[in-house]
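Notes from the 1:1 (GR / supervisor)

We went over the backlog. Supervisor wanted to see one worked example end to end before approving the batch request, so GR pasted a single chain during the call. The sequence is below; no edits were made to it. Supervisor asked that the structure be written out right there so they could see what the output format looks like.
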Amino acid sequence: MKILVCISQVPDTTSKIAFSDNNTSFSTAGVTMIINPYDEWYSLVRALELKEGGQAAAVHLITVGKADTEPVIRKALAIGGDEAIRIDTDSNDPYVIAAEIAAYAQNEGYDLVLCGKETIDYNNGVVGAMLAEMLDMNYVGFASKLDIAGGVATIHREIEGGEEVDSATLPLVVSCQKGMAEARIPNMRGIMAARTKPLKIVAPAAIQPLTAIDSFEMPPAKTGVKMFTIDNLNELVSALHNEAKVI
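Structure output shown during the call:
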């Protein structure tokens, strides 16, 4: 079995967010970029577990981004990926990202494609489903457990009030969430090995985006807490009617 893991670069959650170009662009100045946690902790590690268990022959990594994403993909190689592919373009449109990955993967014979359930920057959560449609593969989203035997995957998904268990034949695209695997930290041997592992740069397929960002806006600043006592409940009712906002 041959596995492809989709890797995204995102800002560290501790970063201070700012925008530039009249609030039309995210400013990366002073921002530490990391592997999207859902891609790293769950998709990548589960793929490595399948390989270590003898169920997969190779784990390839793929990202859509310019040269500044290479430190992130090298870290994924250090964790245990066999080789990486970087599609040399940059886009915030999930359709473009899915289409670029599909354009590369369609002739590479992957049996299983894993991605995180969403990225922590835009939280779209749609690339996996789009990718499955473009590759004409089965798709199961938001998986918390994945086992494979005899070309059939058994997938557990958390649903409201319980758990759902699905089965699907390979080839298959799965988006992964918490519970799929335990996070790993790259060791020194893996870091050294990652320097010489293959990193293929692929020209983009020139996909036209379907969406564009008009502007970014910071959330409103938090205001102070307004206190009411049991003696002024009428003021509380009035504030709920006239001042409270439904989010």
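Supervisor's comment: Residues 37-52 form the longest helix (16 residues).
Batch request approved.
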